Amino acid sequence: MALELVELCEKSEEEPLAMSSAAASPACGEHHHHDHHIHGPLDRSKALGIGSLSFEPIFNEKYNANRVARETMGFLCLQRLLPILIGLLTAAAAVVVGYISELLGDLRTEKVNGLIVEHGMLVAWLAEFAMMSGLALAGGFLVYCGDISGTKTAGSSGIPQLIGLLNGCDLKGEFSLRHGLVKWFGVCLAVASGLAVGPEGPMIFIGASIGFFCSRLPQNPTVWRVLGTPPATVGDDVYTRDYTSIGAACGIAAAFRAPIAGTLFIVEEASSHFKKDQMANIFYGGLAAVEVMLLAGGAGSILEYKVQVGPGCSEIPDWTLVFCIVVGLLCGLLGAAFNALNIQVMVWRSKYCKPTMPHRRALELVILCALSSTGWLVAASFFGEREATSSALLPQSSGCIKDDLKNQLITGSQVEASTKGGPVQRLFPAPCLYGLQYNTACREVHQQAGSNSYAKRCVQAVNTSSMRARPDFQDYCCSFSDLNSLMSGDYQVPGNASCAMDLGKAAPSLTGGDGESFNSVGLLSLVPFKTACQNLFERGIPHAVTLEAMGVFLVIFFVLAALTAGSAIPSGLLMPQMVIGGLIGRMLALATLKLQSSQGQGSFWAEPYRVLFDEGLLPGDSSMVFGTLGLLDPGIGALIGAAAFLGGSGRVTLFTTIMMVEITGDPVMIFPVGFATIFAVLMGNMINHGLYHSLIDVQSTPYLPDTWQADQLPPGILVRDMRPQNPPIMVSLKRGREGIKKALKGNDFTGFPLVDEIEVLRDAKPDNTDDDFDGNHVVVVGMCDRKDLEELLESEDEITAERLKQCSNLYPVTVRDNFPLQSAYQLFKSMDMKNLVVVDDNHRPVAVMTRFAFLAWRVAERLPADRLEELQKRERQRHLLRSHSRRRTVAGPLVLEEGQQRLDDRATLTC
């Protein structure tokens, strides 16, 4: 244990070698002076034990001499073809995940629904729990029993690890081929099990693993001999970063059919070192992935969320802007609550259900399966059956109904002249839809009206003075299936008309009604969650899901999704978050719909039926009139809510907006979706951090944000406040083999300052000269990489100063003690650096700073409490002075109280 902790400290290259056994205690000899509000990793020692990748250019004569200064055609072709290969492989993996998870999920739900009808809830619950537990335990076996396969960290989505790797943290071990295979196998069973999880997160990780594997090709010397060498100055870690990011974007493109969203995910969320020239490669890979998904099944196939579009499908009233603001704020609030709950559960797991406790992790999965199976079935048992009829589902419909339902309501169409010019297609409704029909069969009814009371009533449904004046009046009558039924009293008129609608497997019945009815909450809890998400996005049938059913299911699903995320099973959160947001948005839209009293008129019925509206024979209160105006379709509200909740939890705006537009295929929604997402992100940021970046701290990754965290750390902190206090280990140009051996011995540092010795008189020896250099003054002239030094030691030739220079970077970036730490941070990030050398006034190296010197939580821990308080007070005074200055500019001289004036005077002196 002691050796392990010593190694952790040495990897940080910053602290004296000391031990620390507690995760929350100061690491490597630090003194934790105070608590601070800055969030940090749960396990400080683990974070300090993670190395760094190097994305900076290599200015190394030996390294670059082995390569050409320009790309060869063969290597250029490899670089262009690799993104396409990554996209094809990722999409192939997605096809397998989609088919297996949906096939097993459909079989599970069909079996459970059948048992409910035949044997009741108890037997169905036992079967649901058994199947759910079996699938979950099988899918997570190689995770909670990770000692067998070495994949204990392969649970959950893997997105925090991806963000950490692309940020420069050395997490290559997390992206091995076996980790990718475990995710691939586990996510198929996890999604099929019925737990509140989705496939998208692991699909992103699987794509990243494929990209990581393919990144070995441009780094392989054998490939160089065949295709040519890569460009000079490009390090191996650059290929790891670039192709891993391409794979992650291909995972999104395959899971959502959204190549643009995949590119934006890398730009906005994942990569901290994104290069603009990579955007085209990422997009190429995404397009290849999408093409494979389309060839595998086309529209309506696996992992599909497309909604119907067309005339009337995307129309929104003016007040939708207010709706977007309300939904955005509410989803931001609930997204922050979801993050807080999930993080608390993850912290609990880190203490009581660790990867080293396989039995507890398996037991946790069983408990989650018991809670989930109980929640889904109990929610369904609370609600009775609803009739699957047009009168129950279609009031206030926009008319934007998908084809398999529209074909049950439309009997034909004809082309008519439009009032705006040009031909337009008009529809004929089924007679049962409104209780009236236009048919030559009505003529016999008119003939029988004098002798049969039912026929008389059937004619009276259309018997008005203006209708009687029409030459085709006898072609209008009430709805009936045949004359015998009419004569026996089986007919429909406006007010009691209704068409039976077959909703298919998307709306299961618990009574075996053969499509005549469905359970109110069953179309959310008794179907795969991909289908539940599609039901929420469904347009044109606003009353398919009731407010009460959505409210109950929202509470249950919200809690179970937060509890399940991060358990010992490969799974993602994007689809559960879409379900939660879809529930919120559809509930608010449906509540608004019920409060409104909007008048409407059918806009796309054929002329013979539009006249019935004009005559007032068909309802004018929009209850059953398609094409009503001034109403927001609940399906559109669900789409807006899903995007807003994704933004409120994950805190990404562009990616979320474009992804929701791409997966639904409705570009008109880009404004309301983006508008709501912005408010959700703003609200969430006021409360806590985004989910994935919070999980980075839970997983103890030394993540460096793209910019200095000025909201957490005040300006005024200098390099000397955070540079390592132990002297750096240097390599001298003049000490040859023995000097290198001494430098490498007893540590695992990856970078060493290369110095030149200048002889000085003993009595002129500087106070800070290292005794190892016999009183000589040393000057930094470069940086050496450990790998290059070890190669030099393996050779039998003499190690001269020229050979050392040849394998070293002779252009190191250096800073001094009084350099602002914030500026050093910006320099470190913008130049993709791994090491930053600190020198004194004589250019002697006094420290080597790594990423650990710039972590906000490290700065807060190492800085003395009085120093941090002084800097914070100074910053507050500056803000106060600026505020007063603006007030004086606007309102003239401002008279301050005596105490406040003294504060300003002190602040002025300080500045």
UniProtKB/TrEMBL annotation:
Per UniProt, subcellular location reads as: Membrane
Concerning SUPFAM superfamilies, the annotation shows: CBS-domain pair, Clc chloride channel
Q: Which UniProt keywords apply?
A: CBS domain, Membrane, Repeat, Transmembrane, Transmembrane helix
From the UniProt entry, list the residue stretches annotated as the region Disordered. Answer: 20-42
Transmembrane stretches, start-end: 81-101, 121-144, 181-198, 246-267, 279-299, 319-341, 362-383, 544-566, 573-593, 624-647, 668-687
Q: How does it sit in the membrane?
A: Multi-pass membrane protein
Q: Which InterPro entries does this one have?
A: CBS_dom_sf (IPR046342), Cl-channel/antiporter (IPR051280), Cl-channel_core (IPR014743), ClC (IPR001807)
Q: Which domain of life is it from?
A: Eukaryota
First-listed, main subcellular location of the protein, grouped into a coarse class: membrane
Q: Which PANTHER family match?
A: CHLORIDE CHANNEL PROTEIN CLC FAMILY MEMBER, H(+)_CL(-) EXCHANGE TRANSPORTER 7
Q: What protein is this chain from?
A: Chloride channel protein D
The scientific name of the source species is Durusdinium trenchii
